[in-house]
Design a protein that fits this description.
- The structure holds 3 protein chains of 3 kinds.
- By secondary structure, chain A is α+β, with helices and mostly antiparallel strands.
- Chain A has a domain of about 40 residues: Histone, subunit A (Orthogonal Bundle), CATH 1.10.20.
- Chain A is about 35% helix and about 10% strand.
- Chain A has 3 helices and 3 strands.
- Chain B has a single domain, classed as Amidase signature (AS) enzymes (Alpha-Beta Complex).
- In chain B, strands 1-3-2-4-6-5-10-11-9-7-8 form an 11-stranded mixed β-sheet, with helices on both faces.
- In chain B, helix 4 links the parallel strand 2 and strand 3.
- The two termini of chain B are about 30 Å apart.
- Chain C is an alpha+beta fold.
- Chain C has 3 domains: about 300 residues, no CATH class; about 110 residues, no CATH class; about 55 residues, Arc Repressor Mutant, subunit A, CATH 1.10.10.
- Chain C contains 16 helices and 14 strands.
- The longest helix of chain C is centred in the middle third of the chain and has 20 residues.
- Chain C is elongated and about 95 Å long.
- Classes of the chains: A alpha+beta, B alpha/beta, C alpha+beta.
- Chains in contact: A-B, A-C, B-C.
- At the A-C interface, strand 1, helix 3 and strand 3 of A face strand 2, helix 2, strand 7, strand 8 and strand 14 of C.
Chain lengths: ~100, ~500, ~500
């Protein structure tokens, strides 16, 4: 049985905002299938009582003081933007909701 | 002086200090070498001749004014194009960032500038550092100077090839799963992955935040160590940066170069001896290396690291998961590419078109894989389980380092392969990182040093050490290097004869 | 479809259904710099002038947590009786939105900085304990200007313009457990909770908690069930930007849901947007295809493990909390529980306190804020604090009255002037000629004129019927256009006719 279906890849591509082509869907589905079959091996490891490692360094409480640092100049902020208007980043109309 | 580019970085620095050569002449020599070889090798994505020469002239002026020069002042360097450089394009070898010029410097860029090392340019890589062959660069692959029909390793193939071909005496790489060490091994150069947190990630275009580590690419252990001491050290802008003194790697290399390893115990990872698809020639070179280390006085023992076999699967869940999040910012709003904004389409459509057009196939594959591994219903089974395996691998390392000072393995299971040999099957490509990934998951330092040839192509030996004991890895590798140098010098790459 | 539903009255709705409410409140902390970078946080700066590689999400930039924000969050947690985590992490909440520079929000998921706690509020003479589920720390998003639509809203807009000045400002989210058993009081309890929470946070000095500027924002979850049944499906109303709206949002949602249920319909789990102008909400994104946020621990930030000694010191240094302070004030002002509650509901505690501090009596201060000024705030649909009059000015007004320079009627006219921006009370009184006529010569003439015009009344007073003086006082007030002090006029009349 394949680990990942074409529809599932389409859903994931949508979550990841990738407008993948039909060809890619087919190719990714079969390639991800191979990859997942291989990585599925980690399921063999019994690790119920094992704490997960999210960070490779044993550090905690790394903070900065609440002291201002100069911001970028606005021309540098906007320099790399695909489109700007009125000193803001211009984007096409938004379908989603305001958060 | 016959050929400046054949000198090591340490020799160049000394020559500049004693006035034998000017920094400008050095930089010009490397720029000339780049002019000559770049059409063949394609190690660079951007060359900054003017900027490099300006820095070189500053060094010469400083020397003329009687200033004391830093350890590598005037020694040119190439920087992997995933490290942010203010005012100089940084593309991560992606169409997504093709025209992006960062408004800020990475911490290591700042340190390189402060050390007055002329920056020759930005080197090629697999897009966003995802790959093991540099074939996934959006701007064409880099060729291996040993055989231009073959890959230079990846993701940092550009940096390794530039150093191997003497287009730069030093380079910066970044290592997430082996991207400094594996290219080092297949191009016959030195690649060092420092302790995670030992070198700042601030300004590295993030691939997998909990694994990414910048480090030196060089022709010798001493050169690597000198560069290591310039770029390493605590950075308050990186929360994962370790607030401790930099391990004394230069002194460790000097000690290693005496060729005496007595008192050190080295472990051979049992599980790697039977690893998937390792080439006999690579294993033979590695065994020769181990024998040499024993002759130098090291005590060699076998060590079992039972969970290392799960390192590759764990890595290919953790790294894609983090990358799926890190690469979400490339959406055509604030910087970089925007595709399909015709005034009619919605932002959502434009974002999806932009990301579809801007990312290459391997990047998209990993984003989708990572999205899957983090999605509800699968996160415990994949991402969560991979993080537990990470704990077990770390415990394997800790247990091993209770018995030995360092672990030894081949750097990569195979020598440089031919272009296209593994692009059809992503998992075949992933196997290139089989031996390098465990150190990334653990966070400890690991160095790849040339260990001879297999069928005329370089092989590398990897030395893995406990976290913040980069000095141990450098010492062992330098000791091995002291027995190998003549061999490599006799077979210095000459791309003009390649392929 | 909804227009076909006949809405029940609020009384009918709450007679038939039990509401369950829950509140998620976001508070922007008043730190000098942002959560993960050193950019300043001044409100109202020119667009995109308070941004850097970190808060713009530039490739390569990394966050470093602001210790002042963590301290403020712990203090909020302590003030809300929460447990403080001994170890916790930030997490990435992944979703695409142009306001959010990295397309993930650095937030907290299953390991909040502050765990369970509670906040007691007074409603209708009783104390209601609101259980707190969690308090966590995250970063704010940027702000979009929606262009081309009729209303400035997202719908109908042809494009949007994004400003990232607000992106990365520390945001504390305070989540209640579901509040049950409130019956018809749900809207008042919701309002009282947000009011009290605002007071607590203000007392800590960690935020200016200005709902109208968005530094305090409320999402209200509402569901209905028939008594004895399981809880219903909940809706989440966003964009609730004033205390008054909190109450209105709950009330209107109870009525709306009751209407749907009465008609045999089904409540959909959805996000609704509250509209300040209409007091109604409109549906937003349906949560039936809930976003998969793919939370995972933020690898760029190491875990937080607040030192217990630090937490103990923060706890010891908490200021007097509003509830305690209110009890003290209530006693010192000599108010009944009911009167004190009115003051609280009106958001007038500080105003009255400051008015007293400027020299007014407690009765005088309360009378103006709770009477005339509350009436005007209600008429204009604004909070008391939004009125263009300061406690010091109210104090000044009261002392003019105490000195006999103004009477209540004139004082109300002075308030008109102050609210109109004509200056302080004394200035307005002078400019508008509103001072009490205290010139006894002028008053005497008016009194004599009134006596002459009403001989029969004057005779009665002479005969000892002092109650008849009212007619003459009225006449005097008329000729002086209300600027006489009635007491003085009365004395003059009786003096003259004795």
């Amino acid at each position: 049985m394949s680990a990942i279906s074409r529809d599932e890849v389409a859903h994931l591509a949508h979550l990841a905002r990738l407008d993948v082509t039909d060809d890619e869907l087919d190719r990714f589905a079969s390639q991800l299938d191979v990859i997942l079959q291989s990585v599925n091996r980690i399921g063999e490891v019994t690790a119920e009582d094992i704490p997960p490692t999210s960070h490779a360094v044993p550090l905690t409480n790394v903070y900065r003081a609440d002291e201002p640092v100069p911001s970028l100049r606005r021309e540098d902020v906007l320099a790399g933007a695909p489109d700007t208007d009125s000193d803001r980043f211009r984007v096409p109309r938004i379908l989603g909701e305001e958060e | 002086m016959t050929d400046i580019t054949s000198l090591t970085a340490a020799e160049i620095a000394a020559s500049i200090k004693d006035g034998t050569v000017t920094a400008e002449a050095v930089t010009r020599a490397f720029l000339a070498r780049i002019d000559e070889l770049e059409p063949t090798i394609h190690a660079f994505l951007h060359i900054d001749a003017e900027g490099a020469l300006a820095t070189a002239r500053e060094v010469d002026a400083a020397r003329a004014a009687g200033e004391t020069l830093g350890s590598l002042a005037g020694v040119p360097i190439a920087i992997k194009d995933i490290v942010v450089t203010k005012g100089m394009p940084t593309t991560a070898a992606s169409k997504m960032l093709e025209n992006w010029v960062p408004p800020y410097d990475a911490t290591i860029t700042e340190r390189i500038r402060a050390a007055r090392m002329p920056i020759l340019g930005k080197t090629n890589l697999d897009e966003f550092a995802m790959g093991s062959s540099t074939e996934y660069s959006a701007f064409g692959p880099t060729r291996n100077p040993w055989d231009t029909a073959r890959i230079p390793g990846g993701s940092g193939g550009g940096s390794a090839a530039a150093v191997a071909a003497r287009m730069a005496p030093l380079a910066i790489g970044t290592d997430t799963g082996g991207s400094i060490r594996q290219p080092g091994a297949v191009t016959g150069t030195v690649g060092a992955k420092p302790t995670y947190g030992g070198t700042s990630r601030y300004g590295l275009v993030a691939f997998s935040s909990s694994l990414d580590t910048p480090g030196p690419v060089a022709r010798t252990m001493l050169d690597a160590a000198l560069l290591h001491e310039i770029i390493a050290g605590h950075d308050p802008r990186d929360s994962t940066s370790i607030p401790q003194a930099v391990p004394p790697v230069v002194a460790a290399v000097e000690q290693g170069l005496t060729g005496d390893l007595s008192g050190l115990r080295l472990g051979l990872v049992t599980e790697f001896e039977v690893g998937e698809g390792a080439e006999p020639g690579v294993i033979a070179a590695y065994r020769d290396g181990v024998e040499t280390l024993a002759k130098l006085g090291a005590d060699i023992v076998e060590v079992s690291c039972p969970h290392f076999q799960y390192a590759l699967p764990a890595y290919y869940l953790i790294a894609p998961s983090e990358c799926s999040s890190n690469l979400a910012r490339f959406d055509g709003v604030r910087y970089g590419l925007r595709v399909g904004d015709n005034g009619e389409r919605s932002l959502e459509e434009v974002m999806a078109s932009t990301r579809e057009a801007g990312f290459g196939a391997e990047v998209k594959r990993r984003i989708i894989l990572g999205t899957y591994a983090l999605s509800s219903g699968y996160v415990d089974e994949y991402y969560g389980q991979a993080q537990k395996v990470r704990t077990l691998i770390t415990r394997d390392f800790e247990a091993a380092f209770g018995r030995v000072d360092a672990l030894i393995s081949p750097t990569t299971p195979f020598v440089a392969f031919e272009f296209g040999a593994r692009t059809g099957d992503p998992y075949l490509m992933y196997l290139a990182d089989l031996y390098t990934i465990p150190s990334n998951l653990y966070g400890g330092p690991a160095v790849s040093v040339p260990v001879g040839l297999s069928d005329g192509l370089p092989a590398g030996l990897q030395v893995m050490a406990p976290t913040m004991r980069d000095d141990v890895a450098y010492r062992v590798a330098a000791a091995l290097e002291s027995t190998q140098t003549p061999l490599l010098a006799d077979q210095a790459p000459d791309p003009a004869k390649g392929a | 479809m909804s227009s076909l539903i006949l809405l029940p009255s609020y009384a009918e709705a709450t007679a038939e259904y039990d509401p369950v409410i829950g509140l998620e409140t976001h508070v922007e902390l008043g730190t000098r710099t942002k959560m993960f970078c050193g950019c300043t946080t001044v409100f109202g700066a020119e667009p995109n002038t308070q941004v850097c590689p970190v808060c713009l999400g530039l490739p390569g930039a990394l966050p470093v947590a602001n210790v002042a924000a963590i301290e403020a969050t712990i203090r909020i947690g302590l003030a809300l009786n929460c447990s403080i985590a001994s170890w916790c992490r930030f997490a990435r909440k992944n979703y695409f939105y142009p306001d959010m520079p990295k397309n993930f929000q650095t937030s907290q998921y299953d390991e909040p900085l502050c765990g369970e706690g509670y906040l007691d509020v007074n409603v209708d003479g009783r104390t209601v304990r609101i259980d707190i589920e969690r308090v966590h720390l995250e970063e704010d998003t940027g702000k979009s200007l929606h262009v081309g639509g009729a209303t400035g809203r997202i719908h109908g807009a042809t494009e949007s313009l994004v400003d990232y000045n607000r992106a990365g400002i520390p945001l504390v989210e305070i989540v209640t457990k579901p509040v049950t058993g409130t019956g018809a009081l749900a809207p008042e309890i919701a309002r009282a909770y947000v009011t009290e929470l605002r007071e607590v946070i203000r007392s800590l000095g960690v935020s200016d908690v200005r709902m109208e500027q968005g530094s305090m924002r409320c999402d209200v979850n509402t569901s209905l069930n028939r008594p004895g049944d399981e809880w219903g499906t909940r809706s989440e109303t966003k964009n609730v930007n004033s205390l008054r709206s909190v109450e209105r949002a709950v009330r209107s949602e109870i009525i709306r849901q009751a209407g749907v249920l009465d008609a045999g319909g089904r409540i959909v789990q959805e996000t609704r947007h509250f509209h300040e102008d209409t007091g109604e909400s409109t549906p937003g994104r349906s949560k039936e295809t809930a976003t998969d946020y793919r939370y995972f621990p933020e690898p760029d930030l190491v875990p937080m493990a607040p030192d217990p000694e630090w937490v103990a010191a923060l706890k010891a240094a908490l200021p007097e909390l509003p509830r305690v302070r209110r009890q003290r004030l209530q006693e010192s002002w000599g108010l009944s529980d009911h009167d004190m509650e009115s003051v609280l509901n009106a958001g007038a505690v500080e105003l009255i306190e400051e008015t007293i501090a400027s020299g007014a009596s407690s009765d005088g201060a309360r009378k103006w804020w709770m009477g005339e000024l509350s009436r005007r705030a209600n008429e204009s649909g604004v909070e008391l604090t939004d009125l263009a009059i300061t406690p010091a000015q109210v104090g000044e007004l009261q002392s003019l009255i105490d000195d006999g320079k103004l009477n209540d009627k004139l004082a109300r006219q002075v308030i008109d002037g102050v609210l109109n921006g004509e200056g302080g009370p004394a200035d307005v009184a002078k400019a508008r000629g509103l001072e009490v006529v205290s010139d006894t010569g002028a008053l005497q003439a008016a009194v004599d004129e009134a006596i002459a015009a009403n001989p029969a009344v004057a005779e009665k007073i002479r005969a000892g019927t002092h109650a008849a003086a009212g007619v003459l006082i009225g006449a005097v007030m008329k000729t002086t256009k209300g600027q006489a002090d009635a007491k003085t006029v009365r004395e003059l009349i009786i003096q003259r006719l004795s």
